[in-house]
Amino acid sequence: MNALDRIDYEIVRHLRNNARLSNKELAERVGLAPSTCLVRTRLLQQAGVLTGFKAEVNPAKLGVGLQAMISVRLKRHYKPDVEAFRQHALELPEVVRFYHVAGPIDFLVHVWTRDSEHLRNLAMTAFTSREEVSHIETELIFEHVSCQELPSFIGT
Questions:
Q1: What residues in the chain have per-residue pLDDT under 70?
Q2: CATH class of the 6-46 domain in this structure
Q3: For residues 113 and 65, is the Cβ–Cβ distance under 8 A?
Q4: Architecture per CATH, 59-141
Q5: Which residue, 134, 91, 67, 90, is CA-closest to 99?
Q6: 40 by DSSP, 3-state: which?
Q7: Is the pTM of this model over 0.90?
Q8: What pLDDT does residue 75 have?
Q9: Interatomic CA distance for residues 61 and 58, integer angstroms
Q10: What's the pLDDT at 102?
Q11: Domain residue spans in the chain?
Q12: C-alpha to C-alpha distance for 120 and 79, rounded to whole angstroms
């Protein structure tokens, strides 16, 4: 796929705001024939620009009482330790987002738990018990909002 043009960015913007748009409605919004819009959307998928479509959920309605970010520092930033911890964390059912970051910590791990006891048990059994982990800090999340708009500099 060649460089993205204005129409490609508009397709991405509209789908990011509402992935359930029908192809017909998307085509109308970006000013294309439905067949052309479908081809362009598929090309964006094939090129890896669009990587999937998902449903947003309300964690509280699923029984999630607490969300937290767990900052993890490894004893050493050694590739086998990094990979071992990464694999371990991604296998935990409570993990909803996982970030490998630069700075004084190595990972930020966004977790969903039922309550404070669940969070404490998770921290103790899944994080501090790991040989490669030297330190964790847990921060409660009071509010989580995803911004659906693309940053204004994208596509300009």
A1: 1
A2: mainly alpha
A3: yes
A4: 2-Layer Sandwich (3.30)
A5: 90
A6: helix
A7: no
A8: 96
A9: 6
A10: 95
A11: 6-46, 59-141
A12: 28
